[in-house]
Specification:
Blueprint (H helix, E strand, L loop, with lengths): L9 E5 L4 H12 L3 E6 L9 E5 L5 H14 L5 E4 L14 H29 L2 E5 L13 H21 L6 E6 L5 H4 L1 H6 L9 H16 L4 H13 L6 E4 L3 H8 L2 H39 L1
Parallel strand pairs: 1-2, 1-4, 2-3, 4-5, 5-6, 6-7
């Protein structure tokens, strides 16, 4: 199939099956772009949006995506990398295979996507928009190590890629979202609750951190705000290197303070809550044993 005559700019958006990626795809399409919305299951086609199934952990799948974009559009003006997964749990217990999966999707998935689409981007003078996180440049917090590792890597990847591609006249932009309302964040409490082993010494910590994260979700921002920021990052003639979008103020302040001071503050702020939750969990466990014994005697 030969490239179409359509001269509309073309964007490939990974992780576009829902949440932030879907909101961004809708915005780009509403403003005249042809959007190739990519996810494990192809998003539904709609005005200006073509859904394509592809797996960012599979180079052959991404090569097929590149071939399709080349055949159907003949150009690529932006690639926007939303595809990603959370990585919650204590690093001392978290299965290394799970850590590897987080890195494979969040980091290597981004690397594979850009690699597969690079020739198309270069041919059109296109732009790379990498979705990082406020976690990317900040010191990592408890129970969030695997995800933080992946986003720190995206920051380094983005800097190096930008300093390479600027000599080819191509822009690379990092977008660093704070908390936004998505299906991923809506399930955050359950994810924390399921992140530890039975009898884990981290169970109380996981419960406390999960409750705090769930509280943050209550004040999370509208995905359309992030979509507008990604629109600016992808289309403005002179983009900034980074766009920080709706960061959590308390985390930003903590990251400005000396690390030893923040560690002491975390011990003070969380230590009592973790001890109280541990006592609560012990009481619940004892009550369950008592009830089981009573049932066995009846």
């Amino acid at each position: 199939m030969s490239p179409t005559k359509n001269t509309a700019p073309v964007a490939v958006i990974t992780g576009a099956g829902g949440g932030l990626g879907a909101a961004t795809a809708e915005l780009y399409a509403s403003r005249g772009w042809a959007v190739v919305a990519v996810d494990l299951t192809a998003p539904a086609d709609r005005a200006g949006i073509t859904g394509v199934a592809a797996d960012v952990t599979d180079s052959a799948s991404l090569a097929a995506l590149a071939d399709r974009v080349r055949d159907e559009h003949g150009r690529l003006d932006a690639v926007i990398t939303f595809a990603g997964v959370l990585g919650i749990g204590p690093l001392g217990e978290l299965d290394p295979d799970r850590v590897q999966q987080v890195i494979d999707v969040n980091v290597m998935g981004t690397v594979r996507t850009v690699h597969a689409l690079f020739d198309l981007l270069r041919g059109s003078g296109g732009r790379v928009v990498l979705i990082s996180s406020e976690t990317g440049p900040q010191h990592a917090m408890p129970m969030n190590g695997a995800y933080a590792m992946s986003k720190h890597a995206i920051e380094a990847y983005g800097d190096s890629l930008r300093r390479e591609l600027m000599f080819l006249g191509l822009d690379v932009v990092l977008v660093q979202p704070g908390p936004f309302r998505t299906g991923m964040t809506a399930s955050i409490l359950r994810r924390f609750q399921e992140s530890t082993r039975p009898g884990s010494p981290f169970a109380a910590m996981a419960a406390v951190m999960g409750e705090l994260a769930a509280g943050e979700d209550d004040k999370a921002a509208d995905p359309r705000i992030l979509a507008e920021a990604v629109w600016t990052a992808g289309t403005t003639s002179r983009p900034r290197h980074r766009y920080a979008v709706k960061w959590d103020v308390s985390r930003r302040v903590m990251d400005w303070l000396p690390v030893p001071l923040v560690d002491r503050a975390l011990r003070l702020a969380l230590g009592g809550k973790i001890d109280a939750k541990a006592a609560e969990l012990r009481r619940d466990a004892d009550a369950a044993v008592t009830a089981e014994d009573a049932g066995a005697r009846s």
